[in-house]
């Protein structure tokens, strides 16, 4: 066997057999000296082994960092792969492996709703109505409805404003929110009772208005502090008494005692929760206290919503029950809208594309809220159009409030409530179509404003 150099660059040795090869059989083994000429086969094997990590790279430097992380030394790069340095090998790998950019794993939905909690809140909104079912023979609410209605409107408006202010204080700390509720809730109950007192008439009517105001204030505290299950437990006597009515006549004492027991339990639970919240350590400097003016539009919206619901209830009382229970699913869909909007923001690259997706999300959520109300309206014998239009008005206004936009929905709903409420006083009086028309105009204005406002990506960042 003879060794002879090949070429002028002295980088290859040719090993030839000493015996003359057969014709056409040139048995020559070529050996490259390490460190000078790249070895394509070795580089290809390395590229195949690291393809899943090289593919997403956007620059050879990323591949170089990967090779360093794999522990390749300069000597190994020269001897094993025939490249003079790390960056030469990284460039070869980057050029050999096709670019592939896998989709990132889906991010968790930051607005994922608590389904059970939302449904429970919808039930809790309607359960107090059982008290009227139990106590109706004692004070005849049909003949003395003015005082409870006025007290309810005041409580509703005050509760909306107080709830907003308490949520602002929750950002500072639970203790600060509890202090706000401890001051505001009793004042709201006293205010509602005082406003209803001149309209009450007989003492039982005034007591009913006062009990209603006290309950709404206490229940509002528990709902703001997310103690829905405790409120449900406090209403157990009321639920048990109303459930037994079809088979048992409880008598005046039980009819009055069970709602009173539920009221006492609710107030006691509220006191317990507030005491626990006030015992938490005070937060540090949380900035200036929120101004009362910030909560004013929420209170005005509560008043407008109460008037609209009252006007609907005059013609279709069972529709009000359906609407009240639907507030739980409505809250759930508010969370879903925000989550779907964030997903749409991640899936689009242009403002126009996001606007289209945002409109689709809004239409889908609003349709999902209104669609179950249609058979519910049929079941209760209510006209579907007024109920659906009123529900759409309230949900779209709540959506805008959820994004911190309070004055436009408050003004629009107040205008609709004022026109619908004053229309019967005109000469000649307007027909029953005025409420659906007012709600339709409000829905059109609210949806248009929501598309203009929430169709911009900046509102969802």
From TrEMBL:
Membrane spanning residue stretches: 118-139, 145-168, 180-199, 205-225, 230-248, 260-280, 292-311, 317-334, 354-375, 381-400, 407-427, 433-454
Presence of keyword Metal-binding: no
Domain of life where this protein originates: Bacteria
Protein keywords: Membrane, Transmembrane, Transmembrane helix
Protein name: Integral membrane protein
Protein source organism: Streptomyces rubradiris
């Amino acid at each position: 066997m003879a060794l002879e150099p090949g070429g002028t660059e002295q980088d290859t040795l040719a090993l030839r057999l000493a015996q003359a090869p057969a014709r056409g059989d040139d048995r020559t083994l070529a050996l490259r000296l390490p460190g000078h000429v790249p070895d394509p086969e070795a580089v290809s094997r390395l590229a195949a082994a690291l393809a899943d990590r090289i593919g997403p790279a956007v620059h050879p430097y990323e591949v170089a960092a990967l090779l360093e992380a794999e522990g390749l030394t300069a000597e190994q790069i020269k001897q094993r792969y025939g490249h003079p340095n790390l960056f030469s090998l990284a460039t070869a790998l980057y050029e050999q492996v096709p670019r592939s950019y896998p989709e990132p794993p889906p991010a968790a939905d930051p607005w994922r709703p608590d389904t059970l909690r939302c449904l429970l809140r919808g039930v809790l909104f309607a359960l107090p109505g059982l008290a009227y079912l139990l106590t109706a023979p004692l004070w005849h609410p049909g003949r003395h409805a003015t005082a409870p209605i006025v007290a309810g409107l005041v409580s509703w408006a005050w509760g909306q404003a107080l709830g907003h202010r308490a949520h602002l204080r929750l950002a500072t700390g639970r203790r600060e929110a509890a202090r706000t509720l401890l001051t505001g809730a009793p004042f709201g109950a006293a205010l509602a009772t005082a406003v209803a007192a001149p309209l009450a008439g007989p003492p039982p009517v005034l007591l009913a208005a006062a009990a209603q105001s006290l309950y709404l204030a206490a229940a509002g505290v528990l709902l703001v502090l997310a103690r829905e299950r405790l409120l449900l437990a406090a209403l157990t006597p009321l639920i048990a008494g109303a459930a037994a009515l079809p088979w048992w006549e409880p008598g005046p004492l039980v009819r009055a005692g069970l709602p009173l027991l539920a009221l006492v339990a609710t107030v006691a639970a509220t006191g317990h929760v507030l005491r626990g919240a006030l015992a938490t350590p005070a937060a540090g400097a949380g900035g200036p206290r929120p101004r009362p003016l910030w909560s004013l539009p929420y209170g005005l919206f509560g008043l407008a919503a109460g008037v609209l619901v009252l006007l609907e209830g005059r013609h279709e009382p069972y529709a009000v029950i359906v609407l009240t229970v639907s507030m739980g699913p409505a809250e759930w869909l508010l969370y879903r809208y925000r989550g779907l909007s964030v997903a749409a923001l991640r899936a689009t690259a242009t403002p126009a594309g996001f606007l289209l997706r945002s409109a689709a999300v809004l239409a889908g959520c609003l349709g999902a809220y209104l669609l179950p109300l249609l058979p519910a309206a049929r079941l209760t014998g209510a006209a579907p159009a007024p109920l659906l239009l009123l529900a759409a008005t309230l949900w779209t206004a709540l959506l805008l409030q959820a994004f911190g936009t309070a004055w436009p929905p408050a003004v629009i709903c107040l205008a609709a409530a004022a026109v619908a409420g004053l229309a019967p006083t005109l000469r000649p009086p307007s027909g029953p179509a005025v409420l659906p028309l007012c709600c339709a105009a409000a829905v059109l204005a609210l949806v248009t404003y929501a598309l203009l406002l929430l169709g911009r990506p900046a509102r969802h960042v």
